[in-house]
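Contributing new records

If you add data, match the layout below exactly. Sequence lines come first and carry their own label; structure lines follow with theirs. Keep one chain per record. Anything else will be rejected by the validation script.
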Amino acid sequence: MARSRSSSVASNTTLMVGTGVTIDYTSPFSPSTTQDDNTHGLNNVLKEFGGAGDAGREALLAALKETALEKSKNPNGEVSPNEMFVTILSALSSLVESFESKCKNDEDGGWEKEVEAIIPLLEILRRVTGFVVYWGNNSGALFVHQFGTISRLLRFLVALSYSLPSTEPKSKQSTTSNIGSNALLRQILKTSITLLLLCPPSSEKELAKLLHGTVLEMVHDARPKVRKAAWGAAMEIVIVASSNGSGHLSCDEVDEMNTEPSKLQNQMNAQRKSLADMLWEYCYAVLTTYSSKKNSSKNDASNKLIHVLRFLETSLTHADDDRICVKFGEGCLSLLDGGGVSVSMEVIREALSTLLSCLEEQDDKNPSSGDKEDLTKFASRALAFLLQHRPNTGVDSLSPSAGDVFVVYGRCLLGCMERMISVRSDKEAPSKLLAMKLLPNTLKAMLHLCEAPSGGGGAGDETNNAETCCSAFNQFISRILPLVISCARGKERHVKELHRVAMEIIPQCVPIVQQALQIQYRNAWGSILPGGYATFTTMLATSLLEIRGSDVSPSLTQEDEKSELEIKLQLWITSMVLSLLRLRYDVEKDGTARTAVEYATSTLIRGMGLELFLSLVDFVDEDAEIDVAKSRRANKSLSTTTGGGIRDDRAWILPLMKQGVPSYLERTTTTPVHTESSTAKTHLSFFQGRVLYLARRCDAASADGHRTAAEASIQKSRVIDLWALFPSFCLHPVDMKENFAALAKTVVKALGDHTRYPKLISIICGGLKLLTIGIMERSQSKHSPVAGQDYDALSSVSTKILPSLFKLVESLIQAPTSSTSAEDAMETDDVQSSREKQANNAQNMQFVESVTDAIGYLVQVCPRDFLHNLFKKVVQRLLVASTEVADNVNGKEEITLRMCSLLGLAQALVASGSLDDASLSLLFRAIRPLVRTDEHDSRVQKRAYKVLSEICERHTDFVTSNERLDELIDLMVESIVTAQVSARHMRLKCMTLIVSGFDSSNQSHMAVIPKIMGEVLLCLKDSNAKTREAAYKLLLTMSRARNDITDFFKIILAALGAQTSHMRSAAVMALSRLTFEYARDDETVQALIPSLMQTISLLFDDPAREVNKSVVGFVRVAVAAMTADQLQPLLPEVVGGLMKYNKGMDRFRAKIKIILKKLVRVYGYDAIAPLVPDKDTRLITHMRKLAERAARRKAAGLHDGQSMANDNFENMMESDEDDSDDGRTFMTGVTGFTKTTSKTGKTTRLSAMDRSVKGKSVVSGAKSTLSNKSIKDGGPRIRAELEGEILDLLDSSKMARSVRFADMNMYGGDFRDDEDSDDEEIDQLHFDSQGKIVISDGLPKIGGSKTSVDYGSDDHNDDEENTELKGGGKRRRVSKFESVKVARAETNLKTKKTKNQQHQASSLGAAYKSKRAGGDVVKKGQKYEPYAYVPLNAKDYTKKNRGKAVSKMGTVVNSNKRKRK
């Protein structure tokens, strides 16, 4: 495997599982700190430990400090490392003695207090150790002296932990855990590993005792947490002991290698490596002694072996010495061999995983780690062993790990092969040669894994294992076979033996890969066919294309070898491709297999390129020509693919080839399209000779008179599919100079046949666009030596293509009117004909855009003189068309379309950037009358503005000249009156570009701004969103050009005195946008806001609703922008104006409430409440209650929102959602969703329309039995769940009794939130005996008649709203009289329901009516389906029976709209 072994572990941290605080392993030999720094760092660590908020820790640490400071000589009151170490050791010894005594006395639970004290004490010892062993602290002499004592204490604690008293005998293999023992053992592991890795050079015997007495003692513990911590500690030893994990100091830190820190470093690194060697020895002993175990102890040995193998799987990636990997790899092979001893599948899986870890690559090996050749030789032995010992599930086929064995086995094969074949040195060449010889057998073994049973892990596991095996097979091909093919191509020809072997084994690999097409691998086709099979074929094809495209002149011998290899490669590729195509024919009726084959074919086409694929696959059956002649003589209908077409069994490939075509329609000019890939390089001659030959055959077949219309249509579609490959051949043609001129003639002819094949227009124009972009990019990059020649060839041929494209545009414009027949012209009321005309016009306009787009790119490469002549012709025809006068409607439409097409061509020429100033001036004079007048169609003016905007955007220098700028300004001012509605957007865009060139010091320029201000303001209210956005953009551009924001505000303020409410509203919106944009950064605007607020507050009394809406929006923006000191004097005016509901302000209650909430947050309820009118004081009370409730929920941790910054101007002006309470309060009026609920999936209960329902009757109040509080609190909506009963949803009687729904009218008042629903009541729906909802015709009155409910009224009085608010949610008592009225209403409802059922029995379709559910059913004996037809009966339409017939039909068609007289 190429999975790199990661050994770049951080040198200053610990990686042990569950260690908590990191430990700096470089601290003992760090020369950058002094002893004082060491002491200060210790006290900081102790302070951090005591500040964790644990009272027990703080008390323990305080006692230790107090004891240590009694003998301290430090004047700063800091504890030295040695003093704290001695104190900790003394305390630990005392606790261990107490612990031992209580365990011996068998005190039940008495030892728990000692355990609770020992655990933090060990943690303090662990953190203090790094400071005690510091090299400046006498190199940790005190620690070395006491290391034996600490080791004995820790080992004694381990023994005591395993001997804690219990009702059952305890051992380290027992599964019963004691209270505190797990935590104590894990803490011992943490402390032990820190002591071992930080210990200065000391006795190896003592180190071994501590390692075996703590870490190795617990690696096989039955408790998972303890065992995991023990193996984590062992893993940490391996990581730190590795070359990159031992914490080497840099050269800047250590000046001389004979310094004290460097000596200590080298000694400690050697000691750490010896600890790692002890671990390796222990693991190897478990591995080698497994086979000698007796059957009685086999299970325990198997568990130990599995633990060791899992550890080795992870730890071997950090081993410095390759000999360690080889040693354990040999052990795994011996284990897999078994020697006559049965091995479980789980052991086999772990052994293979360990073997895989031994074979992985490792970076930055230690130079003294041994020769890498040893590992390569071992990989050779391992590969030979694995091929001879394929795992067999056998007895353990039901084991969950049986399927995983095949997965790991395949990865091991891949790892061995990759290790052997990727060598580069000459010494290892024999291993590479052996790998190539074993490649066919290995490939066959990998393929067989794709059909192997996956074991008994379940269907899901089987699928996953099978997919993993297929993935390994695909990786094997993509990683190994390219190296073999490179040897065959001669890249390593200095080793002739490798070249010879490669040429021998590739023919052996081809049939092996083709075996993947056999039926036993059917379930794996979806993975291996588009993966390994297509990849192998693509690699062969790429090599073939590279050989053909090689520019190096080989010698005669090399030429012969090259020709031989080229021939063989083509034979192999052809065999692979045709085998896949034949499989598609065999699995025609199997949808899943057919999809897999088609996907593989598509992948193969993209990998090898269209040209090579088409050269290998034959689409023409020459033998079928004889059958065609016979069919014609017999005068019979032909097959869809014979007689000039393509083969039936290959037609399915055409759509797949289209998928490889680049998406030229979506590609921009900034996207690079040129590539040096061999598969992207194509020949235009091949397209003309091969692809167009097939297209001509299909075209001839479509014109054959012996074919049916359907067969001819199929042939035409195949012509389109073949031509769709044209853009792919335009990507990077290599024969542009030789063959493009000839192909251009064919392309022009194909464009002329657009009446039969209209889709060819977009295809060919897209290909020309792609060809032009690629050639221009290659010529500019100058990477290709023939790019200049290709550019010249395209430039020369463009003079022939461009006139044809111009004519094509004219023909497309004239096509709709010229194709209209006289009969269609007479039938002006024919709707279908009109729709067809509109569809044809829309399609032709799309084609015109494609053609003009291609023209815009081709004119960039055509000769300048030719371009100017074309441009003059366009302008001349435009001038002629603008002066023509039409006699009828069709003529006027034709002139309009012609002018639009000419303007589109002019726009393309301008966008190319190839016109000079003289041409631009001519074009400007031509379109100026079209912009100024409204005599022509609005489409013409819109196109003219588009051309003008293109000029302003592409040619800035031309526009910004003084003379031209004055002309443009005059044109924009003069054309205000004649501007069409549809042209507003482009007009505003032009004005924005023009205003951006204004000079603030030029008075004539500044005088233009007031002239166009009125138009800009009115466009802010336009119904088109693009126009509104363009108007806002122009408004901001004018403000920057004016360079005097105060004067600019005055110009807009003048519009507040306009006579129309539309203009006043637009002016307020403009002021709001400017305030929103500049108030945060511009101090001048910030100072103007108070005066603006005072001025705009006068419009609170405006009777127009749109003015009120704009004013409320401005107040919302201004309140957010003003400071508290600026806004406070204006509070009476603002609040008083907002609370005026008599002028339509009540329509904006949501926005007003948001503003009030903002004011309350800034100034408080006490400051805002006196400013609110008396009749609305309940509103403030209600808001205060909601705020307090939200605060309580937030304190309880129930707040489910997140702060959302609302910086969008449109949201602030239009949205009804709050800006700062996370969208919880308000919902949008249409959907009933807030921003928060729409993201989290929470649904709101009502929309704004539902909340406006007023007048809950006494009847509905009497029916209410459930409160909304229970619903809001998340209680069950099924009553049976309240008592813990399991509800059968299929039982209709239980469903009718149990299910309840929320009332849609539970909000009677306005100014309410979701939160204000605790006291509301919910009306119950009625259900029949089957559990169906009973929907009545309305709310019954006393007499049983219906009462109307006003849903649309918004102008409600405040008194009514307050009355509804005051009604609250208190349960109203219903008198006996009211109960009688309710009962009578229900009786009347039942009577009416019975009459309706009797009436429906005689209605139309009553025979099909279902008795149990809604809708119709087919009953026995009925011949026709429900409402299949209505039989006509003459008696039903007589004057006597006409009324009955109409009433009967009224059940199907609404008859209430029109009554007969």
